Amino acid sequence: MPGGVPAVSGLSFFEDESRSLGIADVLKPANQARFAYPDAPLRGRESDRVLWFRLQVHLSDQASTGREWLLVVPTVSTHELSFYGPYDSQGRALAEPVVTGMSHPWSTRPASSEQMAWRLRLPDTQTYTLYFRVDSTFARIYDVRIWRTVRYLEDTQDERIFDGLSYGMLLGLVVYALVLLTIFREGIYGWYLASVVCALLALAGFNGHSLRYLFPHWPQAAWFCYMAMPPAWVFCKLQFGRRLLRLHHFAPWLEHIVRLMLGALVLATVLAFANIQVVWMFRLVQACVLLSTMVLLVGALSAVRRRYWPAVLYSLGVALLLAGISAIIVASWGWVAWTPDQMNITQAALVAELVVFAGATASRLRLVLQSERRLSARTEQLVEALGTDALTGAASRSGFHGRAEALLAEGRPFSLMLLDLDGFKAVNDSHGHAAGDAILQAVVRRMQALLRGEDMVARLGGDEFALLLPGGATRAQLAALTERLAESCAAPVDFEGRALSVGMSVGIASYPLNASGLDELLRLADQAMYRSKRQRRATRAGHAFAGERD
């Protein structure tokens, strides 16, 4: 039948407080009398204990004899599960005992199933008795079912596809997070990557895939995955959430609560490393999952009120997870009846949350990029207004004055050159302002190419430029630089197929040799520049030093 034959109503059990009874002890009349049928078998809290189960079965028709059946115990967290029987009415076992569980390698699984499944055959229609022993940190009554082997594989195909899709989506999110981390190198993307990886490993542990595929010969590693990955996932999720939501800014009081939970999760992870298998440690993780989800939901709503839009998607993801995890956690606490479908709901909610978080991360990234573009544009406006000439990229008059005053305040010697382009007005008049602009831009580029990194080219207005040259350069060095500037700037500038050229006149003054203040330096350099105009030769830029006579 679809879904297998439910067997939980026929299960009787007792708890082995000594944790040492064997099948021979259980078959004794005194222990047989201990088996009882619970009133609500699928309700009850998980706890660290050893349980013995007994189930009586028989075939309804002779045609089913000899067929293989599977007794499926829907659990992956059992340390050890031992199957005994079937026993006939004479107490004889038809098969050897089977011992498997998370404490044993994958090869011990009789049906190669992630869940605990036992193969059995019944030779006739008489009643047979099955026993199985569960040793688990989370032992409870399980929704045991009996399946035809072929039907079990058919009916669980959808679940395998569901698991494959879940893992595929998580692996895609791992790649997405890696790309973000590689490009932007921000801690928030590292925490998102870690949360996805931990979620992937946690699901692999919960579904039994870590033992089947990752550590088939190393059950201790599979158990560690089962215990350590959930607190590690919640830890990384909290770190990602507090950064995405900017809790320190929008809700500082929630930031303190999150820090306390982070400490509790570190403790839980350390206990998992130490292999301390206690139920209260898992309860701590479950409580942190619920509490952290609610705290982050409140934090997201606080951020939404402040118009921080990435929090909208984040709150949706957290709400999805809160709904999904509540189903399995409240069942593990014994508040509602437990069914295997609750794990699928939780798995779907976890994957959905991480997918929505990817959208929230993209929204945050878009917000950050928009903010950076606005900041960059504003910065450019301020730089242009305060110290940069918009046309040529040289320093503006205000930038020049700021740098000169700084050098004077430091007492550093420097030289000042004032430059005027000869023939520039003729170019403007004959070829237009666009040609003049091309000349100015070319001249600035050529001057900058000849100067040191600490030197400054400034456009004071029109075709008048100033050069600030820190350091105590000699007259010979300044004269040589002037010649190189003249040769470079006199080279023709190609504008719309026409070769345009200008000359250059230069006046030079030095601090502190010629003056002790900027105004006086500018006056002396200006006088020297006009003197150079009078003295220049036809094809070369003239230059003159302050204090010289005609």
Automatic annotation (TrEMBL):
<dbReference type="Pfam" id="PF07695">
    <property type="entry name" value="7TMR-DISM_7TM"/>
</dbReference>
<protein>
    <submittedName>
        <fullName>Diguanylate cyclase</fullName>
    </submittedName>
</protein>
<dbReference type="InterPro" id="IPR000160">
    <property type="entry name" value="GGDEF_dom"/>
</dbReference>
<keyword id="KW-0812">Transmembrane</keyword>
<feature type="transmembrane region" description="Helical">
    <location>
        <begin position="217"/>
        <end position="236"/>
    </location>
</feature>
<dbReference type="InterPro" id="IPR043128">
    <property type="entry name" value="Rev_trsase/Diguanyl_cyclase"/>
</dbReference>
<feature type="transmembrane region" description="Helical">
    <location>
        <begin position="165"/>
        <end position="184"/>
    </location>
</feature>
<dbReference type="InterPro" id="IPR029787">
    <property type="entry name" value="Nucleotide_cyclase"/>
</dbReference>
<feature type="transmembrane region" description="Helical">
    <location>
        <begin position="348"/>
        <end position="369"/>
    </location>
</feature>
<dbReference type="InterPro" id="IPR052163">
    <property type="entry name" value="DGC-Regulatory_Protein"/>
</dbReference>
<dbReference type="InterPro" id="IPR011623">
    <property type="entry name" value="7TMR_DISM_rcpt_extracell_dom1"/>
</dbReference>
<dbReference type="Pfam" id="PF07696">
    <property type="entry name" value="7TMR-DISMED2"/>
</dbReference>
<feature type="domain" description="GGDEF">
    <location>
        <begin position="412"/>
        <end position="544"/>
    </location>
</feature>
<dbReference type="InterPro" id="IPR011622">
    <property type="entry name" value="7TMR_DISM_rcpt_extracell_dom2"/>
</dbReference>
<feature type="transmembrane region" description="Helical">
    <location>
        <begin position="257"/>
        <end position="278"/>
    </location>
</feature>
<feature type="transmembrane region" description="Helical">
    <location>
        <begin position="311"/>
        <end position="336"/>
    </location>
</feature>
<feature type="transmembrane region" description="Helical">
    <location>
        <begin position="191"/>
        <end position="211"/>
    </location>
</feature>
<dbReference type="Pfam" id="PF00990">
    <property type="entry name" value="GGDEF"/>
</dbReference>
<feature type="transmembrane region" description="Helical">
    <location>
        <begin position="284"/>
        <end position="304"/>
    </location>
</feature>
<keyword id="KW-0472">Membrane</keyword>
<keyword id="KW-1133">Transmembrane helix</keyword>
